[in-house]
Amino acid sequence: MRTTRMPAILLLLWCLGSGTAYADATVFLGSTTTPNNRQTRGGSLGAGLLIVGAELEYADTPERPEEGSPALRTGMGSLYLQTPFALAGVQPYATTGVGVYRERLGSAQETNVLLGSGGGVKVSLFGPVRVRFDYRVLKLRGTPTNSLVHRYYVGLNLKF
Questions:
Q1: In a 10 Å sphere around its CB, with 0-12 CB exposed, 13-18 middle and 19+ buried, how is residue 149 labelled?
Q2: Which of 36, 43, 70, 91 is deepest in the core (most CB within 10 A)?
Q3: Domains of the chain and CATH, by start
């Protein structure tokens, strides 16, 4: 039995490693629209094989106490599915993930888990440079000011 395991494991590793590997980095500006529009800024780093990948993302939305809008900082790990190549210069994707958030409004503060899902497109500009358009729905656990948060952003993406 031991002699059949090794070739099977080697074949599996060869198949998993035969896809095109790539990575990308994004810096972005956008808007968190819950409870009202506020600027969001952040960045992400992702890596994947052909159509499946993983991404780490950080985003920061400032507080507006006069409007009752809390500051929101998020850190999230996500898995994504995307087309294996750009179609007419556009590469759509869908993503889902989990992370942590810290919400602050005045002296009140909440830190807990978040679930996120969304999608977008990466549009080729030239060479490895792309523009990324993204939409996310964040479900904040615990007792946040708003348990469902919507975020849109546009980012500069570098594929390497």
A1: buried
A2: 70
A3: 19-159 (2.40.160.20)
> Which residue in 73, 77, 39 sits closest to 59, CA to CA?
73
User: For residue 146, how far is the Cα from the chain centroid?
Assistant: 20
How far apart (Å, rounded) are the C-alpha atoms in residues 124 and 92?
11
Give CA separation, 74 vs 19, 44, 51, 61, 86, in Å.
Answer: 31, 12, 25, 9, 29
CA distance 154 to 26: 9
Tens digits of residue pLDDT in 83-93 = 998 999 999 99
Q: Per the structure block, which two tokens stand in for 33?
A: 């629209």
For the stretch 115-156, pLDDT in tens is: 999 999 999 999 999 999 999 999 999 999 999 999 999 999
